From TrEMBL:
It holds the Pfam family Kelch_1. PANTHER family: KELCH REPEAT SUPERFAMILY PROTEIN, OS02G0202900 PROTEIN. Keywords: Kelch repeat, Repeat. This is Kelch-like ECH-associated protein 1. InterPro entries: Kelch-typ_b-propeller, Kelch_1. Signal peptide: none annotated.
Length: 142
């Protein structure tokens, strides 16, 4: 782990499940590692979190689907995991949401097409916008 105040690196404990192709996100000061491919040559639905204060890894609830190279975003205190793949040419179009308060995942939507190796970023869009010419407000479709 890098400490920018001291410009030093520190070796951390190994994850519970070694993996590659996972998604990573920070939520409430904890680092989550989600999905990926592990040494037993299969994709995983396993999720771990790391607490930088205690330097401990802990498993949390597993996702519904195994995902290699998914996208992840943090919105309103929850993790959203999108896409990823489960085997060659099987790309997920589903979106799952993790609630850390209840340690549960839920299916919350689908993308138009399945995809993998994607990046995600949260974006807030106002449901209203003003037409600059005539100052009228228009509501976006839900």
């Amino acid at each position: 782990m890098y400490d920018p105040h001291t410009d030093t690196w520190e070796q951390l404990p190994h994850m519970i499940i070694p993996r590659s192709g996972s998604a990573a996100a920070v939520l409430h000061g904890l680092i989550y590692i989600i999905g990926g491919w592990h040494a037993s040559t299969e994709n995983t639905n396993k999720v771990e979190k790391f607490d930088p204060r205690t330097k401990n890894w802990e498993t949390v609830a597993s996702m519904f689907e195994r995902r290699y190279r998914p996208g992840v975003a943090v919105v309103d205190g929850k993790l959203y995991i999108l896409g990823g793949e489960d085997g060659w040419e099987h790309f997920h179009d589903t979106i799952e949401c993790y609630n850390p308060d209840t340690n549960t995942w839920s299916q919350v939507g689908e993308m138009l097409t399945g995809r993998s190796w994607l990046s995600c970023a949260p974006l807030r869009v106002s449901r209203e916008r003003k037409n600059r010419k005539n100052k009228r407000k228009y509501m976006f479709d839900k």
